[in-house]
Amino acid sequence: MYVCLCTGVTDGKIRDAIYEGCCSYREVRQATGVASQCGKCACLAKQVVRETLSELQLGQAAIPYPVEFSAA
């Protein structure tokens, strides 16, 4: 779905920017140009960023780690 009509940014582009390393709304905005024109999409863009970052954090928390680490 289009989040920013002014610059043609979709929710998929926002998610891709996060998957490629953006860790904040500011970084996503710089990478995609979302909310750089009229700003009406800022709330929705922030919501997509928040949801995507939360999903990634939950996904990482589910990764099992060994109880002990041994130095080789």
TrEMBL record:
Residues 2-49 form the BFD-like [2Fe-2S]-binding domain. It comes from the Bacteria. Signal peptide: none annotated. GO terms for molecular function: 2 iron, 2 sulfur cluster binding; metal ion binding. Its cofactor is [2Fe-2S] cluster. Keywords: 2Fe-2S, Electron transport, Iron, Iron-sulfur, Metal-binding, Transport. Belongs to the Bfd family. This is Bacterioferritin-associated ferredoxin. It comes from Pseudomonas frederiksbergensis.
